[in-house]
Amino acid sequence: MSTYLESLNWRYATKKFDAAKKISDVDLNTIKEAVRLSASSYGLQPYKVVIVENPEIREKLKAAAYGQTQITDASQLFIFANDVNVGDETVNNYIKNISETRGVPTEALAGFSDMMKGMIAGLPADAKNTWTTKQTYIALGNLLSVAAELKIDATPMEGFNAAAFNEILGLDKLGLNASVIATVGYRDDADEAQHHIKVRKSQEELFIKL
After folding, report:
1. What is the domain-level CATH number for residue 166?
2. Residue 86: inside a domain, yes or no?
3. Concatenated DSSP letters of the chain
4. Rounded to 5°, angle at Cα 78 from 77 and 83
5. Which of 153, 161, 155 is nearest to 140 (CA)?
6. Is 199 inside any structural domain?
7. pTM (2 decimals)?
8. How far is CA 55 from CA 2, 6, 25, 75, 179, in A?
9. Is residue 123 part of a domain?
10. Which residues span the domain enclosing 117?
11. Annotated Gene Ontology MF terms (predicted)?
């Protein structure tokens, strides 16, 4: 655990990436697997994760992210896109996955299926989107943690035009919305932010024990 805490203390929101350094296929797969194994409500994972490496596409996305250089200089750009049409089909696909993975008849999962469908159906459209967006942040947290363990830099970012991202990537046509992004790679030696002492609330200020 001490090593894990050391890794969290090591990480910071990288402002300047070394564009010449690329993540190995092995480490990239580890990051992807950590994101895949993330917790989500009911296990539904109502989102997709788009990994952008294409330089031309990233230049367009950079313009839609107010010119932030991390978008083009990082090794990879991860875009977490929440499902804006979550509903019965999402649940049906999940139930099918459970059935095939665990060898359980779908009929035995009917109660669980109906419960999820009823919960989702009872939510207004904006509440559904808020709910699915929250799930992407859980996955983002896993990405940040595993990257730190691998000594790979990762910066979570909300400063971008989601509508423009959706259009550039065709996400709106897939029923998806870019909710949060992360640039992943290796810090530039000239990035002054890496030398800043991490500032967080103390445990006494942060936690309330009842």
Report:
1. 3.40.109.10
2. yes
3. -HHHHHHHHH----SSB-TT----HHHHHHHHHHHHT---GGG---EEEEEE--HHHHHHHHHTTTT-THHHHSSEEEEEEEETT-SHHHHHHHHHHHHHHHT--GGGGHHHHHHHHHHHHTS-HHHHHHHHHHHHHHHHHHHHHHHHHTT-EEEEE--S-HHHHHHHHT-GGGTEEEEEEEEEE-B-TT-GGGGSPP----HHHH----
4. 145
5. 155
6. no
7. 0.96
8. 38, 33, 18, 10, 21
9. yes
10. 22-186
11. oxidoreductase activity
Amino acid letter, residue 144: L
Cβ–Cβ under 8 Å, residues 49 and 79: yes
Number of domains in the chain: 1
In a domain, 3, yes or no: no
Model confidence pLDDT, tens digit, residues 131-180: 999 999 999 999 999 999 999 999 999 999 999 999 999 999 999 999 99
